[in-house]
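User: I'm putting together notes for a lab meeting next week and I want to include a structural view of one of the chains we've been expressing. I don't have a solved structure, so I'd like a prediction I can at least talk through. The sequence is below, exactly as it appears in our construct file.
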Amino acid sequence: MDLSNPPTLVLPHLHAMALALYFCPQATQALELGVGGGALKRYLGSVHPNIHMTSIESNNGVIQSCVDYFHLAPGTIIQGDGQIEIKHYHCLDLLFIDIFDGHKHPDFLKQDAFHRDCLDSLSQLGILAINLLPEHSGEIDDFQQLYLRLSGFRPLCFKVPGYQNRILLCAKQPLLLPEYATLVKFARRHHLNLNYLVSVL
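Assistant: Thanks for the context. Below is the predicted structure for the 201-residue chain, given as structure tokens.
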């Protein structure tokens, strides 16, 4: 976290995840599974205060750290299992998934049922952003094929230069990147660094 400007997105992969806002500019309801250091929660509270953001985190130690060190108020993060909690949400405009069990994704992140529940939680125009750390090159293609099968549309994929991260943006509708000039204007308004994301066809 940038102590001089807490809402700033410091980690590069978060700039790609925040691109979800471009595809759902009228968003009012957002959910994140895996709070990390609370960066997206602080960011959205700054650039889009009209968005109600619910955060779910399974690790109580992470929650307490967010309160103690990362400028999040007590009670603003729900302790729970994302695999279970996602079943209780519907009509989400934005869904951010950034879940790790140690340095790996939990097993349920590789199960079709979880991703079906994620899509079911979205509104018709909702956007799902997933941060992935693939173990091999074919894993991302597997995820893309999964969402193509579940939604009928291939997700957008971004890599983060110099990092293992791959970000998928998924929806119940086709997602097309705008012309670069349009994207630059959006990035400037939302304090995003386009150097942190490269589209993967």
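A couple of points you could mention at the meeting. DSSP finds eight helices and eight strands in the chain. Strands lie at 29-33, 52-57, 77-79, 92-97, 122-132, 156-159, 166-171, 198-200.

User: Perfect, that's what I needed.
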